[in-house]
Structures are given as structure tokens and as C-alpha cells.
Amino acid sequence: MFSYFCGLPVQTSFDMDYSFMQFLSLVGSLGMFLFGMKMLSESLQKVAGDKMRTILTAMTSTRFMGILTGLIVTSVVQSSSATTVMLVSFVNAGLISLTQSIGVIMGANIGTTFTAWMISLLGFKFSISAIALPLIGIALPLVFSKKNSRKSWGELLVGFSLLFMGLDFLKDSFPNISETPEVLSFLLKYTDHGMFSILLFVGIGTLLTVIIQSSSATMALTLIMCNSGWISFELAAAMVLGENIGTTITANFAAAVANVSAKRTALAHLIFNLFGVIWMLVIFNFFTNTVAHFTVKMGGLDPFQTPEGVPIALSIYHSAFNIINTLVLVFATPLIVKVVTRIIPSPEGEEEEFRLQHINIGLLSTAELSLIQAKKEIITYAKRTYKMYGFFKELFVETNDKNFYEIFERIEKYEDISDRVEVEIASYLTKISTYHLSDESSRRLRAMLNIIDDIESVSDSNYSLAKTLRRKRKANIWFNQEVRDNLNHIFQLADEAYRVMLHNLEQDYSEINLGQAYEAEDNINKFRNKLRKQHLKNVEEEKYKYQAGVIYNDLFSEAEKLGDYIINVSEDIAEISIGLKKGVAQK
User: Fold this and answer.
1) How sure is the predictor about 587, in pLDDT bands with cuts at 50, 70 and 90?
2) What count of other Cβ atoms lies within 10 Å of the Cβ of residue 396?
3) In sequence order, what are the residues at sequence separation of 6 or more whose Cβ sits closer than 8 angstroms to the Cβ of residue 222?
4) 3-state secondary structure of 345
5) Which residues on neighbouring strands pair with residue 2, listed in sequence order?
6) What pLDDT, in 10s, does the model give residues 295-331?
7) Residue 21 pLDDT greater than 70, yes or no
8) Which of 80, 117, 394, 551 has a CB 3.0–4.6 Å from the CB of 108, allowing a cystine?
9) What predicted TM-score, i.e. pTM, was given to this entire model?
10) What are the beta bridge partners of residue 11?
11) pLDDT (tens digit per residue) in 378-431
């Protein structure tokens, strides 16, 4: 709307307000699309539940199974960015190796093309938003159901509906080229500069994906821009290449605070996608022309002639590029592993510092996956405590004063680390408890809280043993060979109990066998009782000095306490499946 001032047309504030409102509508539509995608992704993972563990198992077989797994997972979560962030978490948690993760990355790149096909075949052919509100009506009672599985299905339907409603709003919010030709004229300034234009739109695609943090959402915007006639097919293809680069940035951000293996996984994703973009740019014109010819031959519209033909052609281009790139590089996986390992070497002495191995990059999208992460961290925690016990055994046989106190300082350091790790894992588990948990997951979480408490007690017991040896050295007390042999034997029994505990922690919690754990703990108890009787007799016969006898008694008694804390861990695990109450085996 225009008014006239001094004979010149002046645009009123109404038009300015309208364009600003149009921009807000565009942002709001994108927000609805992203929220629908997030809700659909999370609800699908909740519906999958424990089946995710089966999918993770598939990752550990061959690289081709990894590709299939990445394809399936990305088709579910509808964003390769989300998949690779999740993948970084899995590698960080020790669920899969670096080599296996590369196969999943390749599959994720293929799986992310599913969104383009879904939008091209459904979003532009007919309006799914017409049935979106009825779907939400069906989902409403499910969303408010007290049963978690029904609630997840309700959220799935709502997420699906919001995703396509957002897509419809996005299409309506984009300015019409016929009504606003100045937009097209602005873009035309940058479309006829050959390879510079291609590289520019590669950069735009990269930047958009980094900002939006979802390659699928960027692909949706690209398809809408093509369908509206904003950009040509070849520039849209260039944006797709940029999206392949941009989607790696999110994973590298996530890996910045993760362990070395996770950093290598994120870098491997970047190398894989960059290599694909480079060889595609070399044959860019040939490849886009081939895709256009193939589209027409299959009965589609020519994407170079009409905007309506671009979505299908772009989906074919996206899929073909990622499939070919995977086929080219799948056999180069060992080489990629060598390259990223060389670029990101393992720092020396890393395990000596306080640093969570598996849960320092936050919760995963579902409670079940987060519990798997927590379980891996607990195993690492227990192994660190076992290493601490190894230092104590070194301390027992050390004769050099300087070496003795260096080892003792390491034990003190590990004790401090143990206290802090317990707090961090407990905090993480508390966050998980805010999720909607199944009965089994709730039992697992409660058991994990008990497990970390008992592992911390094991660490305390290790430290007490070390402090007793320090008292012995300060008092300049020496044991005879019989006493040393007896202590070495009970320490070996405790070592065997440790190994059983670690084995039980590494198994599936539902498959624990307490037989070996009880046997190891019983052996410690029986030998402690034998030593106690023998010790009282030796004191009466004055076979060693009274102070030496006190320290001797403290050592084998503390070793028996250590055995109690160790069996507690296995009993904590057993509570999940058989409801065993702690303390059954203690004497």
C-alpha cells in the first residue's frame, strides 16, 4: 500500500509491518517443523525402547551391518546430525569402536536422504496437514495416558503431524516470486558466476545446517526454495553438498568434551563428507546433468526447465551422491582410522586425571540409552578402583622409601578421584530419574546408585589398607615370612573376588550368576576366621610384638571388609532381576 508525498510514492508502515510479520511466520514455521521432528525422533526412540540395544549389537558385527544400522537409525531420527551426535556418545561410552562407528556414519549419510524423499513424495504432492489435526485428535488421549508406551505412541503421532504442519506453513510463509520479484533479482546476482556460485551455495548450505543443527530441516528449506522458484536445481545441489559438511560440525562440537575415540569419530565423519564433496565438485556439472536426464527418463519433470521437477531430482541426487560416496570409501575404512588416529593421538597419562570417560557429554535422547552410558561409566569406575588395589599390592612389597611414598600418593589421588566420580555418576543418574522410566529401567537405576556407593566403599577400603601399611612403615615394623605369606594369600583371595565383581558388572544385569561371587567372598571369610584364631594364639605365645600384631590384624580384617563391599556390588546387580536383598552372604 502506497501514499504520496510531494508527488513521490512512499511505502507505508503497514507494508513494513507485513513483511516483518511474514519473516516471523517463516521463523515460527521452521520452529514448528523442528519441534515436530524432535518430538517424532524422541518418541520413536521411546517406542523402540530396549530394541535400541539390539540395534547397537548389530553395530558390532561388520562394517556393512554398521552401514545398515546407520541408515535405519537416521531414517528414524530424521537427522544425520542427531545420529552422529548419538554415535559420538556411543563411542564415548565404549558401546562401539572407532572402526565400527565409521560404517554407521556412512549409513547415516544415506539414511538422511529419507527426509528428502518423504517431503518430495508427500509434502509437495498432497497436503498431509489436512489430516494432521485429526491425527492429533486421535493422539490426544494417548498423550495423557498413564501408560508410558501409549504416551510414546501419542507423542509420535503429534510429532508427525507437527512436522508436516510446519512444512505446510513453511511453504506458505516463503514470499511468492511473482509477487516479490526483487527477491529473485537479488539471488540472480550470485547465480551466474560459474564455480564461484556453486561454492557460494555450498557455503550457504553449510552455514544453514550449522545454525539450524539439522540437515533434514535444511534440506526441507532447500526443497521449498526450489519448489518456489528461488534457486535452480544446480544451486540446490550445491546446497546439499554444503549440508553434508555442516552436519559434521554438530558432532565435532559434541566431541569437544568427549574422549579421544569420540573425537576421532567426529573427525572421521568430517573427512568422509569432505572427501565426498571434493570429488563431487570435480564432476558436478556432469553429475547434475546425469541426474536430470535420469529423472526425465523415469517419467519425472526436467529440473532444469521447471521448479516442480526439482524436488524429486534433488532427492535422487542426494541419495545417489551418498550411496556412491559410501561405496567408494567403505573399503578405505582402515585408512580413515589410521588418519584420524594420527591426527588425534592419545595423550599420555590421561587415565591418571579426574575425567569421566563416558557421561561427560550429557544425556542421550532416551533413558534406556542414558542408562547404558551410565553402566559403561560404572564399569570404568570399578576398573579404576581395581587399579588402585593393584597399587596397594605394589605398596605391600615395596622396600624403597621414596618409591613407597610415591605409590601412596597415587593411591591418595585415586581415592580423591573416586569420591568425585561417585558424585558425578550419582548426579547423572538423578537426571535420568526425571525421565519416564519403565519398571526394569527404574530397578536398574536404583541398583546403579547402590553399586556406585559400594564401589566407593571398596575404594575407601583400599585407602584404609594403604594407610595401615604407612603406619607400619612409620613404626619401622617388619613381618616374619609366615605373616607375609598369610597376608599375600588373603590379598590374592580379594583379587579373585575383584575379578568376579568386574565380570558381573560387564555382563547384562539380567544374566548375573552369584555363585562365583559368593564362593570368592566365602573363601575370604573362612581364611580371615582362620587368621583371627591363629593371631590370638600367636599373641599369647608372643611370636611377634604387640604393635606388629595390631597392624597385622588390621590388614587381614580390612581385607575381609573389602570382600564384603565387593560382594555387595554383585548383590546390587542381582536385585534387578531376582530381588535379592543385600547382606545375604555377609557373615
Assistant:
1) very low
2) 19
3) 205, 231, 236, 239, 240, 243, 314
4) coil
5) 11
6) 888 888 888 888 777 888 888 888 898 899 888 888 8
7) yes
8) 80
9) 0.53
10) 2
11) 998 999 999 999 999 999 998 898 999 999 998 988 898 888 889 888 888 888
The Cα–Cα gap between 538 and 514 comes to 36
Cell of 448: 546403579
Q: Where do the DSSP E strands lie in 2-55? A: 2-5, 8-11
- CA torsion angle 63 68 70 74 (round to 10): 170
Q: Which residues contact 102 (CB under 8 A, 6 or more apart)?
A: 63, 66, 265, 268, 272, 333, 336, 337
Q: Where are the domains of the chain?
A: 8-343, 361-578
Per DSSP bridges, beta strands 2-5 and 8-11 are antiparallel
Other C-beta atoms within 10 Å of 492: how many?
Answer: 13
Q: Which amino acid is at 60?
A: T
| CA distance linking residue 82 with residue 174, whole number of Å | 26
Q: Which pLDDT does position 2 carry in this prediction?
A: 38
Residue 165, CA distances (Å) to 31, 80, 106, 231 in order: 11, 22, 31, 23
Phi, psi of 144 (to 5 degrees): -95, 10
Chain CA centroid to CA 336, Å: 21
Res. 454 pLDDT band, cuts 50 70 90: very high
Nearest CA to 83 among 60, 54, 103? 103
Interacting residues of 434 by C-beta distance below 8 A, sequence separation 6+:
none
Reported as a pLDDT band with limits 50, 70 and 90, residue 178 is very low
Q: Is the pLDDT score of 451 beyond 90?
A: yes
CA distance 456 to 126: 60
Q: Biggest alpha carbon distance in the chain?
A: 122
pLDDT, mean of residues 22-40: 75
Alpha-carbon dihedral sign for residues 327, 329, 334, 337: negative
